[in-house]
């Protein structure tokens, strides 16, 4: 880009003072400043558009790579399942039924945390499965009540 030093700017200012004159120089300087500001904003907008398009292209490439990896993984899993199924079918055809059941017996049993959800995961469902007569006998609140409504409900007659 063009490199302006202090000496070059002073020379340009002196020439502009002589050519334009001292009366019109402030208006011209203001107009030039406004135009330079607009030019800088336009350049920054174009630059941000270019950056966004480059990032979008990179994201599309990453997405396409992930899709192909998932597709390849799916094919390899399907191939492994097909091989295991054919091996199981081959052992069942040979009459070795005991070996297939021992295969399932040899598998480790998963712990509670490996299976899935924690204990309080579905507590709302479990509370709603409790019978209404039991909730009434135990005094479980089924609806939200204000303090005044609760006092009025339990006030002795």
Automatic annotation (TrEMBL):
Keywords: Cell inner membrane, Cell membrane, Membrane, Protein transport, Translocation, Transmembrane, Transmembrane helix, Transport. InterPro entries: TatA/B/E, TatB. GO terms for cellular component: TAT protein transport complex. Gene3D superfamilies: 1.20.5.3310. It is a single-pass membrane protein. The keyword Transport applies. It is found in: Cell membrane; Membrane. The keyword DNA repair does not apply. GO terms for biological process: protein transport by the Tat complex. Its main location: membrane. GO terms for molecular function: protein transmembrane transporter activity. Part of the twin-arginine translocation (Tat) system that transports large folded proteins containing a characteristic twin-arginine motif in their signal peptide across membranes. Together with TatC, TatB is part of a receptor directly interacting with Tat signal peptides. TatB may form an oligomeric binding site that transiently accommodates folded Tat precursor proteins before their translocation. Belongs to the TatB family. The Tat system comprises two distinct complexes: a TatABC complex, containing multiple copies of TatA, TatB and TatC subunits, and a separate TatA complex, containing only TatA subunits. Substrates initially bind to the TatABC complex, which probably triggers association of the separate TatA complex to form the active translocon. This is Sec-independent protein translocase protein TatB. It comes from Aquabacterium commune.
